[in-house]
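Recap quiz, item 2
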Amino acid sequence: MDVKPDVNGVVNDENRNHQPATIAGPTNPMVTPLLTDLYQFTMAYAYWKAGKNNERAVFDLYFRKNPFGGEYTVFAGLEECIRFIANFKFLKEEITFLRETLPPTCEDGFFDYLQGIDCSDVEVYAIPEGSVVFPKVPLMRVEGPVAVVQLLETPFVNLINYASLVTTNAARHRFVAGKSKLLLEFGLRRAQGPDGGISASRYCYMGGFDATSNCAAGKIFGIPIRGTHSHAFVSSFMGPDEIIEKSLISHDGSQTCEDFTSVVQTWLSKLKRLGILKGIFGETNQSELAAFISYALAFPDNFLALVDTYDVMRSGIPNFCAVALALNDLGYKARGIRLDSGDLAYLSCETRKFFQTIENEFGVPGFGKTGITASNDLNEETLDALNKQGHEVDAFGIGTYLVTCYAQAALGCVFKLVEINNQPRIKLSEDVVKVSIPCKKRSFRLYGKEGYPLLDIMSGEDEPPPKAGERILCRHPFQESKRAFVVPQRVEELMKCYWTGNPDKERAELPTLKENRERCAQHLDQMRPDHMRKLNPTPYKVSVTAKLYDFIHFLWLNEAPVGELQ
Amino acid sequence: MDVKPDVNGVVNDENRNHQPATIAGPTNPMVTPLLTDLYQFTMAYAYWKAGKNNERAVFDLYFRKNPFGGEYTVFAGLEECIRFIANFKFLKEEITFLRETLPPTCEDGFFDYLQGIDCSDVEVYAIPEGSVVFPKVPLMRVEGPVAVVQLLETPFVNLINYASLVTTNAARHRFVAGKSKLLLEFGLRRAQGPDGGISASRYCYMGGFDATSNCAAGKIFGIPIRGTHSHAFVSSFMGPDEIIEKSLISHDGSQTCEDFTSVVQTWLSKLKRLGILKGIFGETNQSELAAFISYALAFPDNFLALVDTYDVMRSGIPNFCAVALALNDLGYKARGIRLDSGDLAYLSCETRKFFQTIENEFGVPGFGKTGITASNDLNEETLDALNKQGHEVDAFGIGTYLVTCYAQAALGCVFKLVEINNQPRIKLSEDVVKVSIPCKKRSFRLYGKEGYPLLDIMSGEDEPPPKAGERILCRHPFQESKRAFVVPQRVEELMKCYWTGNPDKERAELPTLKENRERCAQHLDQMRPDHMRKLNPTPYKVSVTAKLYDFIHFLWLNEAPVGELQ
């Protein structure tokens, strides 16, 4: 089991790396065994004091409801969990801190015990990262000494919740935007803190985005990075007079234009005189013109201009076109423009017409297809609205709503005890959706004739797995009347072993980010379309075997207190 | 200028600490000069290529709208910004990465330039952290070489946005809960990533919370930590038979109870036989009873039990009371219970009655006042609803909605160029709210007779500051008709210098987290109540001087392109 070289994470503190594992530490060095709730330590002490700390427990990590009003979720964050447990070890100063934090009555032996623990006796089974997943089905099953596994609850849930939420959000944005559009994640500045930003870049890429603006994330995860300039760059110039170095060598190196500024000015005059554009613009903004010329001189091969600092159609577009045409004279092809305000549907269509007019009037092949990028508070709804109105945008830069998951800022993954000492356990609740599904379980995805997944089914660990071609009764875990016989065409077991200290057991390799991204795209593609649609999607069915159903309800009755009516 | 010892942040990579500054690096070591948008580097290159990189620029950092439908915001995140620039220096490998990332046409000289830059020539003026602040008024003014200051945009905005948002959210929760309640931040598991959790703990404390469940945050920032046990702890026990070590020494050490379990069982029988409780409960859950006994044996001085694993009134409360009464026999006082589901208003009132019945029936003084903590998806609205219904909760544990700022997951701080080379600059927009206020500015808070702040006013840097007792015209920056004469009783300049490389200038000290927390509480207290109320709060006025007003509108006309109608 190896971390692939393209996931070039920060390697953790050497003092923690005592284990033979070759897995790098968590990407964020702040992810330490102390990054957990205090009650995990008070419980650990109570388990230790009761002599229960080494009892073998099984916990399921799962969520109860798909986010964003949808009927699917993408699972992410597994690699960070494995990195965390592969390097799980308390530093001396952390033990000292805990000793000062817990009540003084806590016995010394407990702190010696804590100092000694690691995750060599823990096993983690999980669905591969990037998979499409559904409520109630365990994303991870974590087995090990109860006190140790309990300490993992908070960091695991923290590492999975946001990762899965933002990957799902990215996948939903990709779904609405369509496959042909370039999607750029621009969220760092609005993200919830520094690694909110870094994680967002990573997981948006996994969920189907093409690139990020975030350099740190680009470096750490090997994600393509994009960016050009801001409004401040435009307004930092006063006018073309301040451009001193005006020469530009042609793309093929065969000639030098000594005064690029003049060539641009000439093109601007030509555009102004063009009858077909009459009335669209008069004097363009001179700061903006100077900024565009300077940017083109710096990046003649990558000229992409932000055109809305003063006025898109009256200034930004004509200024851009003059510079692009001057570049074209020297064999360079301008990349395009970015719109960051206003009516993006209308402005993109007007801009496209302007570009096509230039292609036709001046005979510049391909100019009509010059790229149009749009940004400015985009989300699923605005993308959908743009599609309905009709637009000419080729690339979308999406920030705030994507990375903060503004439409629903949290996913509710939980971590529930399902077995201890081989005894199945259940957590009851007034609210049926909060009742946990007991037992150490396996889960399977059953596929139908058309290749679509039909449903997921959970069984007790010792039950024979469902087989392709064999009829199986699939029951809703809590609603007696909901059940169906299914004859699957194909059966896929969902969880693999990703972590074990047992050298005889095989550990699944952690895939690269690119592999997870591909799995995500492939899983999304193979879903039946009615589960995926934005409006009233069909819920995907999650079921249990008849045997597990009976056992759940036996245990439920057994644990629920009986009232005494007078 | 020193970072106080209680802000015990991770000290950054030694290679960065080349500067004489004694300020520790960012709390999260992932905050590096690469944690910025790529366009900051492409702009830096274009500035450098145009010979503009050292032009002196002034940027304002501000937001446009208060979050959560309110009329105030609390400013936070400044200390992290100062830590960041105090240690701002590129590592060789970062330069190598940038060289590979930018187009190959970029000249070598630029990378030598980048390798050499630091923030010794940058100045940062800011409002003190923990202050109540308002839209459009600069939270920070950052001056320095345009290419360097531009690189700071993304990390500064990232570090301020979430910090201010979550501090404001915490302050709003405190406002609704009232001063007498204990507020506990329980959000780590649902936060947006690891430092979403760590930052949330820090800034919720600043905003008025009393403690966190997050051990890492407790260690780094010296915040009180709280926690007891979860549902899993309860369901990990099968029944009292499995408790082997049953002895407990009395609180004063004078006697040892050899079989604490029996004493608890006896109390449970007494409770069951008590006429006044008849019909409330019958057989309680034995797993739960065993878990409570074990927890009490481990923490006899800190017994707080989660009572809703099976059934609050039929099992959790009677089991808790039996254990609490047994502890009471030995001189220990139980801390209380936690409710994590169901109707918190109703259950807390029923629980209080139960406690009071015990106080009266068994003559246990103070038992009626045993603490009741509530958790379970609490937010401003549910706290408000609980207040209206009436409840008996003493402490609230708040997670998801607090730390992810679910009601509004992002604050929109921006960083706008307002002056370069002593030339004021403006950013126009179709949307007036997006037009920037040009010029290097000062800002002041004017206080009225009753001690409340009346309004904030911005002026050009060279204007004479407003004086107490002198009449001043305060104008809305964009709406001509909105203006008022004000005679302030007191005038407070809002920004101080927190960072300068100039040894002759005085730098304000960075306060401790506790000091910022106190400032926050004090600022919130002194606001006029109608600005603070939840429903339809009165907007606080933000204004400019008459001279600045005139200049804004002169510049606006000057920069806006004029159309040519045919």
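The domain at 228-393 of chain A is CATH 3.20.20 (TIM Barrel).
Residues 1-21 of chain A have pLDDT under 50 and may be disordered.
End of item.
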